[in-house]
Amino acid sequence: MFRARRIWVTAAAVLAVAGGMSGSAQAVPRSDAGPFTATAAANDGTLPPGWRITGKGSAQQLIWRSGTRVPMSDARVEFHAGGRLLGVPSPAKDGRTFRLGLGAIAPKQLTDLQVLAAGRRLDAAGDNSASGKGRSEAAAQPAAPLPAGAIDPGKPGTYRTTTGEYTLNSVRLPGYPQPIEMQAVVVAPKGATGKRPLALFLHGRHYTCYKPGTEEITGDWPCPAGLKSVPSYRGYLRDQQLLASQGYVTVSISANGINAQDADAEDAGAQARSSLIRQHLAHWADWSAHPETAPPVVRDAPQADLSRVLLIGHSRGGEGVNRAAMDSLYPPPTAQDGYHGPVRWKIRGTVLIGPTIFGQNPVADVPSVTILPGCDGDVSDLQGEVYVDGTRGVSRGAALHSAVYVEGADHNFFNTEWTPGQAQAPADDDFYNDPDQRDPVCSPGTATRLTADQQHKAGSTYIATAARLFVAGDDRARELLDGSGRRAPSADPARVLTHAVGANRGAGFLPDGQVTVSGGKLCSAVDPDPAVACLGPDTKGGSPHFASWETSKEAGRHALALRWSAAGSKVTVRPSKPVSLGGAKGLALRVIVPPNTTGTQLDVSLTDTSGHRATLGRVRVDGLPGSERTASYWAREVRVPLAAASHAGLDLHRIKSLELTPRSRSGQAWLMDAWGWRPGTPAVTSAPLPRVDIGRLAVKEGDSGVKTYRVPVQVSGHGSGQVRVYVNNPATGQDTSRLVTVRPGANTIDVPVEVKGNTRFDYGVQHDVFVKAVHGAVVGAHRGGVTTENDDPMPTFTVTPIADRVTEGQPLKWKVTLSAPADVELNPAFLVQPVATGPELSTLDVDPQWLSENSGEEAAPERPLSKVLSLFLWTSVPAEQLSGEISVPTITDQVTEQPESVRFLAVDENGDPQSGGPELTGTVLDAS
Predict the structure, then answer these.
(1) What CA–CA distance (Å, rounded) separates 736 from 105?
(2) Who's near 642: CB < 8 A, 6+ residues apart?
(3) Are 791 and 698 in contact (CB under 8 A)?
């Protein structure tokens, strides 16, 4: 939990002011000087603790400072207000301060401010510690082990292994000022003959530098003198050794240079990581063709077979691996890519470990396994589930996409260099653990939490399982990944659950499509309306299936929600067209039930277009162990055979409806989808699809006239497909969406932006566009837009007294006047200062509620106002107006006093008084 000190400053914004001529002021550029932890804005006009607004003109920023250092991690730190995403702030080097440009966002719009990372609250108001409130602390106990599968890919192979490293010349990538290292560790089999498949690992986002023997860590690149590079790329040696013993050549590459520079990348570094991966693959292709040019460690290894490549990525490395698979099939725009050579490799599959997927743009035609850590404290919303759900209906559907849920696993321990006691650099358990508020599922020592070695062993086993299925083509490994309910014993004692889409699943019932529901309701995965959302805001815990994206509301992402208070309450799903289950052996359903529940039972029935009906069987679904801090609303795959439908004479080629009838007394469930299922892993060929990439254009507003600009959009590739385009309205923060058919050469995504020029100051405006694939398309750069930059100076302001000499009980008042009106609200601010001579107004002379709201301090004991920490005054000058008022409410008392004075001085963006700047001075006379 992150605690900010409780200092309340009554300011919807603190606008930096600096000294010019006496009596006037203007904003000054942002400084990285010491933190100013002013706090105050919500519905009552105050920002929460730790927040402030600073800056000059278009550089006006919303700043949050944490009470403790926020670890450099893979999840994005995001600012939200009023339930919508404001943006992704830039971190300062102190690891505590985060800054976001506000653009056209007015301070009055900053209600219900929150700092989130993968759905997890980071600010003080968002204590995510396990408090014991809400759902019971008695989490479900681990269930009995699943039956063992036919094979166990976690067993070491027969080859001994050899290990070594190579370092090549660094490379330059678009948008990254510092060159990126080309460094890797290779583990290969000894004595293996012929060409061997290649497995490439990419680590995630972590600290880049450390000082040996200390706890000092930084995110710099290159590392400063006296600091060493964190060897994150060496954290998968155990995984590499297992694969190498089975005959694979393995390489794990370093990406610290990207980690240190991706904070400002619109895609959080996905394209850069893809470029780095393909740079390494290109070298391996060269070395395979010309072995004599290879580094010694590569020459000593068997020749790599670039037609059989498996990519493994951890966290942001997972998103980079996904993008590399995409870019290898559908080339990205040249200007944004860091690799421009031919593709001389074939990616057979990907393994994504606790991955991010900020773009929600999985590659449908490349098989994947996504490992979801049940106790992930970094990418805690388990958004990697989108690598499964997001592929449905996008392409041919032949590629298997599996989710592997590892109960009790955290984010870091899959990498030994991120694991305490094993890492060279400082490391920790990413799942927050408060000894006084232990989590019933994920705190160390609980029945469900894995040790670091247990977790890593499970990860190695399922990486090897993916290799066995995707690269070696051994279909016996499929049952360990596709929801068949089998386990790999080498992963014991970890409890690992799986579900999947694709492969030999045929047509099915998909709530995202056109369906009619009776007895239940279609709910929305992402929607601010609790009546519509699948999980409301008060739900304890979350669901990987409902992970949020760029928009506060999404179209086309649904589930079927069931809620019943008596057994027998039938729910019927009718697709717009009959479904063909011909050739299927069973019906596979993915069903969510609440965590820690057991014994939910549903009868599954089908009806064909002739009205014949058959009950296929009854399924039982148990919830996962979960707490309010885990994403445990995760779908279990259950199957029923279709034999009963055949015996009842149903036409399996024309199924009209699916019925689910609860047999439990009461409960809740959500149906994600249902598919015709049969065993086998079909060959996968990629479809020729169009690719969409959104760019960003920055323009000056100008002094007059209206100009129309268009959001840069590139559509490449082949064929036509559908995407959903979201356009954000910067004035309201709301998004509109539409379904668009795209094809190369056609200008179907046309988003015009009008820019009106004038000579009045504003903060600039960012018009954002987001795009997501729906069918027959892929999306690379998923976000972009047009940014209008202000080119007019900020007005100066002067101060004149209205009532600067008053009797106690009356307010002191001043008028703040701008030199010219602005197009946005401006908020000059002042800080209390000692008076030059004579008695000073004290804390007992002013309204105590006003004092508390403006400083967070109590009136007693009595002390001069200048001794009150962070006592600010501010005023709001609305757009197109010239002035505003500031007042200090005084109170009467029974004490005979001499005249007392008060003084406030204009401040800069750090809250520091500006010598020579505008002053507010006043005197209060005794009423007796």
Answers:
(1) 18
(2) 581, 584, 585, 586, 587, 616, 652, 676
(3) no
Closest CA to 701 of 636, 765, 797, 613: 765
Question: Which distant-in-sequence residues (6+ apart) come within 8 Å of 566 by Cβ?
Answer: 665, 666
Query: What is the CA angle 620-632-314, rounded to 5?
Result: 120
Burial of residue 611 (number of CB atoms within 10 Å: 0-12, 13-18, 19+):
exposed
Question: In angstroms, rounded to a whole number, what is the distance separating the alpha carbons of residues 50 and 65?
Answer: 5
841 touches 900 (CB < 8 A): yes
Element (H, E) at 281: helix 270-289
Nearest to 506 by CA among 573, 404, 558, 579: 579
Question: Cβ of 122: how many Cβ atoms within 10 Å?
Answer: 22
Pairing state between β 812-818 and 797-803: antiparallel
CA distance 891 to 478: 78
d(CA 337, CA 175): 10
Residue reference for tokens 């998909």 = 510
CA 221, CA 257: separation in Å to the nearest integer? 6
Report d(CA 802, CA 812) in Å as an integer.
8
CA distances for 770 relative to 272, 551, 613, angstroms: 20, 8, 44
**428-450 confidence digits (pLDDT tens):** 999 988 888 899 999 999 999 99
With tokens 């659950």, the residue in question is: 497
In this prediction the pTM is 0.86
pLDDT at residue 45, rounded to an integer:
45
**What is the identity of the amino acid at 404?**
V
With bands split at pLDDT 50, 70 and 90, how would you rate the model's confidence at 31?
very low
**Cα–Cα distance, 318 to 557 (Å, whole number):** 23
What whole-number distance in Å separates Cα of residue 794 and Cα of residue 742?
A: 43
Alpha helices (H) in 571-675, listed in sequence order:
643-647
Which residues is 694 bridged to in the sheet?
713
pLDDT at 819 over 60: yes
Secondary structure in 3-state letters for 749-800? CCCEEEEECCCCCCCCEEEEEEEEEEECCEECCCEEEEEEECCCCCCCEEEE
pLDDT digits (tens, 9 = 90+) for 170-220: 999 999 999 999 999 999 999 999 999 999 999 999 999 999 999 999 999
Q: Is 117 helix (H, G, I), strand (E, B) or coil?
A: strand
